[in-house]
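Batch manifest line 383
LIGAND: 4'-deoxy-4'-aminopyridoxal-5'-phosphate
JOB: complex structure
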Amino acid sequence: MRLPVYLDYNATTPVDPRVLEVMLPWFTENFGNAASRTHLYGWTAEEAVATARKQVAKLLRANPKEVAFTSGATEANNLAIKGVFERYSYKGKHIITLATEHKAVLDTCHHLEQLGAEVTYLIPATDGLITPQQVADVMRPDTILVSVMYANNEIGVIQPIRELATIAHNGGALFHTDATQAVGKLPIDMAEEGIDLLSLSAHKLYGPKGIGALAVRQGIDIIAQMDGGGHERGRRSGTLNVPGIVGLGKACEIAQKEMTGETARLALLRDCLEKGILANIPHTFVNGHMQHRLAHLTNICFEHVDGENLLLSLKDIAVSTGSACTSASVLPSYILKILGLTDDQAYASLRFSLGRFTTKEEIDFALQHIIEVVERMRVQSAV
Ligand code: PMP
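JOB STATUS: finished
ARTIFACT:
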């Protein structure tokens, strides 16, 4: 049986074989606890973690000391937002974020609302973009944090991070970005862009699942959400996942070297798929901004077809509607609905996300398959 063509790299990426290779010894012969300061096993692990920390920091143009390893971006978002709120709520309790954030940000904010936080959820324009003015308009003297994702997981829209951070700072607030879908895909310079806290996850950039990081600019204090042995400079206790951390570091190193070429290659393939769908299938349109977006992704609405049937009929490709994290529910994507799509349009929208191992042959095959399936479905529904 032929496996479906994988076009869901935004949900997760396979581990790059080069990443796996450097991870393997850290499960077996080099099994030491990075916090064991009394013997060679511990020192070796500690050194590997230090190297990985440098690799991650380099990709963000941050200082290695600013990187705190977590179990992924969900935890990093929780740590950033809850950690800032707990630390600075004496100054104010107002947080600004977007209604189109990932659930790991939205649900964290909802949690904090139970504890007295006041959260403004901004609605972007129909192309998914937020303007700095929208943020400026809702800044208050008691705003302590502005949290805006770098690139959206469903539509790929890239927000004007630098400008948003400036507005936050001018109002005396910190700026956090969930950069899970941007790290390794876009050049990032934390200091230059004014990012105070940045969340990332290894499994979106060809590293393993269950490891990520929160980068926290020096001088910014946050309250840990995991208490224990005081690891990660007291920001996140728990024995370090050395193989995972080594893998994340290597994934960052590879991304740094290959990002430019990879982005250009994937943009061509994405455009080929997108143009092919729009040109050959009537009543289709792209969701989100066409320029300010990730190069490897397109989110397309196929009007007048049943979304669930469409996904079931596209057996030879692996794509998603909505984000994988909420796909257990049968609700239409809240992100697409915020952009103004009807329930039917949101159900009938598919996210195609390409990646490192996507080939031209796969894209040609996927395009043909999509054209055939949609044509068949429309003929059937017209009968
Ligand atoms: N934020 C965004 C934008 C994401 O796409 C994801 C993964 N779907 C997460 C956070 C959660 O990351 P993790 O799987 O590492 O918890």
